[in-house]
Amino acid sequence: MEFISGYVGAMDLKGDIASLKRSSYIPLVAKTAFFIGSQNQNLNFRTGLGLYADLIKTGEQILEDQASQRRYEGKKDQRMFINLGSDYKLNDKTRFSFEFEKTFFGDLNVDWSINANLRYSF
């Protein structure tokens, strides 16, 4: 199980006929997953299936135009995900990894997330 947190800053977008405001918040998400894979000396592959669960509501949003104002209270969501990743050992201290992830069955889904990184150990 993994816990993910951070900071999402406030937003204030204004147009000619409408505006959107969102308050800042600190998300807290629980992630649990099952992964299977294959590895050899330099190259690893893995695929997984899991669940994200928001433990704290997202920030309140206010949509306003010239005639009305609508408030949307933050919400919690649960969604499943699939993940496909690989990493390659370049040398004893350096690895390159690449991952694809898609979430579904939730209200706040991510179509595709792509993550690439270069990790140096010292």
UniProtKB/TrEMBL annotation:
Q: Which Gene3D superfamilies does the record match to this protein?
A: Autotransporter beta-domain (2.40.128.130)
Coiled-coil boundaries: none
Superkingdom of origin: Bacteria
InterPro entries per record: Autotransporte_beta_dom_sf, OM_autotransptr_brl_dom
- Name this polypeptide is given: Autotransporter outer membrane beta-barrel domain-containing protein
A single GO cellular-component term on record? outer membrane
Q: Which SUPFAM superfamilies match?
A: Autotransporter
The portions of this protein that span the membrane are none
This protein's species is Campylobacter jejuni
